[in-house]
Amino acid sequence: MVRDEALMTLSQKKHWVEITLPVDGETEEWVSQFLFELGSLGCHTEKGILHGYFSQHDWREDKADELRRYLLELQRRGLRVEIEKMKVRVFADRDWNEEWKKGYRPFEIGGRFLIKPSWYESVAAEDKTVIEIDPQMAFGTGTHATTRLVLELMLKQSGDFHRILDIGTGTGILSIAAANLFSGKIIAFDNDPIAVTTARDNAVKNGVGDRIDFFCSTTVSLLPMNFDLIMANIHRTVLEKMLIDIRQHLSSQGRVIFSGVLIEEREKFLKSLSLAGFAVREEKAIDEWLGIIVGKEF
Fold it and tell me: Is this prediction's pTM over 0.70?
């Protein structure tokens, strides 16, 4: 179902199911992602509470059981999860869009970008590059530490890049930022067709739609060219499975910006990078998360 059809269907339904759960920076993105996998129509976090929304028509009690099992698995991995505080409630029809808009406000990144949603008509930008992002049902508004890490590390890159790859593009925010910083052609993909539609819409809205090719895929291996800059903000376990393919598609002097790695997983990920033939050029941490720039090790 494309995004517009999903929202149209959503507006016709009369009752909703809301899941709420206390989260911190370490658990927010992973729980949000799992809620989307269960069929959530949207999530937002406000004052440390994650809210996920489902249509009552599509909700089944076994989804709550699946979520509890997933939260238990996060606990076993050492993440702080307060399963006993998870709540499920049904409520009458209301403007669902207003729910996820609550947690999304304009903010700056790296002294260069001002990220804002479209419903903020005017924002004092001064010397900032304004990027307008509407997340809809896709990931990557820039508020999460992992996205900020890629953006801030991208801002530190000197020179230009002629071919750029964005793996797991989500809302397209990283590709749109790259289009404002570098002159090269950008290719971006995601395994979620709704994310691809959202990212393409956001790129057009920001005047860079002709600079970025978006498509739906799960692999780098089929791409026919190499890249000077590759960005990958996804879970460490997924990254590690892609490292060989990523290296094969990196130009000799190219750079990769990785994020989605917890600081406590640093040594494990660095070992995986070394085994795949990468050399670390720079690291940066925000909260519990690590961003890493690498190049080829010869």
Answer: yes
Report DSSP state, residue 31.
Answer: H
| Alpha-carbon distances of 107 from 120, 143, 235, rounded to whole Å | 12, 8, 24
Is the distance from CB of 147 to CB of 107 less than 8 angstroms? no
Which of 68-82, 98-112, 176-190 is predicted with the least confidence, judged by mean pLDDT?
98-112
Q: Is 140-296 in the same CATH topology as 3-101? A: no
Residue 1 has pLDDT above 90, yes or no: no
DSSP per residue, 33-95 = HHHHHTT-SEEEEETTEEEEEEEGGG--HHHHHHHHHHHHHHHHTT----GGG-EEEEEE---
Q: How far apart are the first and last CA of the chain?
A: 45
Q: Residue 233 and residue 169: Cα distance in Å, rounded? A: 8
* Token representation of residue 112: 């260069």
Write down the CATH superfamily of domain 140-296.
Vaccinia Virus protein VP39 (3.40.50.150)
* Check whether domain 3-101 has CATH 3.30.70.980, yes or no: yes
Instruction: Give the pLDDT band of residue 22 (cuts 50, 70, 90).
Output: very high
| Residue boundaries of the structural domains of the chain | 3-101, 140-296
In the β-sheet with 129-132, what is the strand arrangement from edge to edge?
107-109, 113-116, 129-132
The 10s digit of each residue's pLDDT in 113-157 is 998 888 777 666 678 899 998 766 556 666 778 889 999 999 999
Give φ, ψ of 111 to 5 degrees. 70, 5
Give the three-class secondary structure for 156. coil
- CA distances in angstroms from 256 to 43, 92, 180, 195, 230, listed in the order given: 29, 47, 18, 22, 5
- Alpha helix positions (H), the chain: 3-12, 28-37, 61-76, 96-101, 145-155, 173-181, 193-205, 236-248, 266-275
